[in-house]
Write a structure and sequence with these properties.
Layout: E1 2-6, H1 9-18, E2 23-27, E3 42-43, E4 49-50, H2 56-70, E5 74-77, H3 83-95, E6 102-104, H4 112-120, H5 127-154, H6 165-181, E7 186-195, E8 202-210, E9 213-214, H7 223-233, E10 238-250, H8 258-269, H9 273-285, H10 301-315, H11 358-374, E11 379-390, E12 393-404, E13 428-440, H12 449-459, H13 467-476, E14 480-482, E15 488-490, H14 492-504, H15 511-525, H16 531-552, E16 562-567, E17 574-580, E18 583-588, E19 597-599, E20 606-609, E21 617-622, E22 628-632, E23 641-642
Parallel strand pairs: 1-2, 1-5, 5-6
Antiparallel strand pairs: 3-4, 7-8, 7-13, 8-9, 8-12, 10-11, 10-13, 11-12, 14-15, 16-17, 17-18, 18-19, 20-21, 21-22, 22-23
Helix pairs in contact: 3-5, 5-15, 5-16, 6-13, 6-14, 8-12, 9-11
């Protein structure tokens, strides 16, 4: 009997269905080795040699796997096909003492056909992929373990820095600074309500050109200017100039990659990146979708054949394109052998699948629709564009109507259908009224999860497997939080950390530098660059600069305690405002003799008396992961808490 080792018990359970009695499928429950938590675990002087340990939680699993591998006829390492999966396979081979006995197989989907094909072509462990994963892990450990103590000394304890997360934080902070500095400016637009005397149908047109020149965005600047235009146009003749009727076609989008799936799940389903990846992982491990960490938009010929069969039988010939549609990979890193995220069996719709969580079903439905839409015809619209001249002024009106839904049949998209009356060139129209409208320019929007992921991907920061952890970490550290519109705002702590990093370690949080580092890691994965040299090139200058900054940088003065009028309810001394990892809080000025502390609660975060003790107030609070709940201000003396907002039946939580 051969022993097959995967990283997940769910994956093991699914694979067991497809392999016969000649195979025993077991799970490693993730990584079986890692760097120690209590120390840096890297011998910097010895070419960055990592000192891996077997964590306590993995020791029992490793012991069991050793016994099974010793009596097996061979060991097959079937972990995921990315760098992380390759590293898990390598660590397993090391702790189990495997040599020629081990085989490595990879597959993009957990189906019977894919498994048997993979078993026909086993390979050895790809050490280039392993080295790329080791390099990333060591880089992040070096930055975290050496830069975090600097933040403790110059700001306060409990802070931490991350190589990629700090760049994401910088993007959010800089966007916030743009919003603060933004000064709205007034501008005007001018609409004309017109009608054709014969039909009496009214329609709206907007001022488009003045004296042959298109109006520059955002619009007309002065009130006096718009008033003069209104006066000029009151007695003008509005005459239809060219009428253009065109057919407009809209193409379907490619099937999902990791980042586009996270973005669309955030927009349409309101899932966080972390939730999306968790549900996708379950769908993959249950054999329902292909591997969910990918940059590729390739599709297998088998999946295209099944997809076309479903389209023809379910929707009819008019929804079947002549030949399968193929998409060009935008990412230079996407491997041709890899696929986009798609259902393993396109014939299976979401209603047919069995899953534990309804949210998994919703994500599967989104993946299925995106795949199916990618192989359906263009949507066709009829458009009409009308120009109306009024002396030196030209107005314009556009109409659009859906002629053939095409891919929109399975992938609905919002568009505003607008019809115009029958208008002929040369017709003189009646002016019903003019509508001058004042507007104000708006600042750039704060990032939400979808737009942040899109920006990180555009800059080349992070990779498919890292977007969700990046976003999760900066929230968990209390560097950013989501507002009521589900958009990111930096906390005071986040802004302070970013200020110190930008001023003293600009290269660490530099977008181009971080993107270049990702490219170098990719070069390691391709076997084109030595991982130890990469680490040496980074660590030498970083270590020297860090040593200098310890001497030259002063502790942040903005953190000096601010005395308040509030008295300590334990010793009567004044309370002071201090800054900590989770933001500002009240502390007794008699510290360390009196260690009393209290949260600073805004009036909008108070919800009346506690229903349990009657003495405290209900305050809005957050868990370490940012989830909102409501609790008594007298905690721990009173332990009343609730997920529900007092006075409502609505559960309120972030994300």
């Amino acid at each position: 009997m051969k022993l097959v080792i995967v990283e997940s018990p769910t994956k093991a359970k699914t694979i067991t269905k497809f392999l016969g009695k000649d195979y025993q499928i077991e799970s490693s429950f993730g990584h079986v080795r890692d760097l120690p938590k209590s120390k840096i675990g890297i011998d910097i002087e010895n070419h960055f040699e990592p000192h891996y340990i077997i964590p306590v939680k993995s020791k029992k699993t490793v012991t069991a796997l050793k016994k099974l591998s010793a009596k097996s006829d061979g060991v097959i390492l079937a972990t995921d096909e990315d760098r992380e999966g390759e590293a898990i396979a390598w660590h397993l081979s090391q702790v189990l003492g495997l040599d020629e006995k081990a085989e490595r197989i990879v597959f993009h989907e957990i189906t019977e056909e894919a498994l048997h094909e993979a078993l026909k072509e086993p390979r050895t462990i790809d050490m280039s992929l392993v080295d790329a994963q080791q390099a990333r892990r060591i880089l992040d450990r070096l930055v975290g373990y050496e830069l975090s103590p600097f933040l403790w000394k110059k700001i306060f304890r409990g802070l931490s820095a991350g190589r990629v997360q700090s760049v994401a934080l910088r993007l959010i902070v800089e966007r916030e600074e743009e919003i603060r500095k933004f000064k709205p400016e007034a501008y005007w637009t001018l609409d004309a309500i017109l009608k054709n005397g014969k039909s009496n149908d009214e329609f709206k047109a907007f001022l488009y050109k003045i004296d042959g020149k298109a109006i520059e965005k955002p619009g007309i600047k002065g009130k006096e200017e718009i008033d003069k235009m209104v006066a000029d146009l009151k007695n003008a003749e509005f005459k239809i100039a060219p009428v253009q009727n065109k057919e407009y076609r809209r193409n379907p989008l490619p099937p999902f990659t990791t980042s586009t799936m996270q973005q669309e799940a955030n927009r349409r389903l309101r899932f966080s990146a972390r939730q999306t990846m968790m549900f996708a992982q379950r769908l993959y491990e249950n054999g329902l979708i292909t591997y969910m960490r990918t940059d590729s938009v390739n599709l297998s010929s088998e999946s295209l054949t099944l997809g076309r069969k479903f389209i023809k039988e379910e929707f009819g010939e008019q929804y079947l394109i002549e030949s399968p549609r193929k998409f060009q990979n935008k990412s230079k890193l996407a491997q041709e052998a890899h696929e986009a995220i798609r259902p393993t069996n396109p014939l299976v719709q979401s209603l047919s699948i069995t899953v534990e969580d309804e949210k998994e079903r919703k994500l599967y439905d989104l993946i299925w629709r995106r795949f199916m839409a990618s192989q359906m015809p263009q949507a066709v619209f009829d458009t009409v564009s009308v120009e109306i001249s009024a002396g030196m002024y030209v107005f314009k009106s556009n109409g659009i109507s859906l002629k053939f839904d095409g891919f929109l049949k399975v992938w609905p998209q919002e568009f505003e259908e607008k019809s115009l009356p029958d208008l002929r060139e040369g017709t003189v129209l009646d002016l019903v009224k003019l509508e001058p409208l004042e507007h104000f320019t708006e600042p750039p929007a704060r990032y939400n999860e979808a737009s942040l992921i899109k920006t990180l991907e555009a800059y080349g920061i992070g990779r498919p497997s890292t977007y969700a952890p990046i976003i999760s970490v900066i929230q968990t550290r209390n560097y950013v939080e989501k507002n009521k519109d589900r958009r990111f705002q930096p906390t005071e702590t986040g802004e302070l950390v970013n200020k110190v990093l930008v001023e003293n370690f600009p290269e660490i949080v530099d977008i181009q530098f971080t993107a270049k580092m990702e490219e170098q890691l990719d070069a390691v994965a391709e076997g084109k660059e030595d991982w130890r040299e990469l680490l040496g090139d980074f660590y030498g200058p970083f270590s020297k600069e860090l040593k200098e900054k310890y001497e030259s940088v002063q502790k942040e003065e903005a953190l000096a305690p601010q005395v308040t009028d509030e008295k300590c309810d334990k010793c009567g001394r004044p309370m002071v405002i201090k800054m900590g990892r989770f933001g500002k809080f009240l502390a007794c000025s008699g510290f360390p003799e009196c260690k009393n502390t209290k949260s600073i609660v805004k009036p909008s975060e108070k919800f009346g008396p506690c229903p349990k003790c009657g003495e405290g107030e209900i305050h809005l609070k957050k868990t370490k992961k940012g989830r909102i709940f409501y609790g008594c201000s007298r905690y721990p003396d009173c332990d009343w808490s609730s997920w529900k907002k007092p006075g409502t039946a609505i559960e309120e939580e972030e994300g």
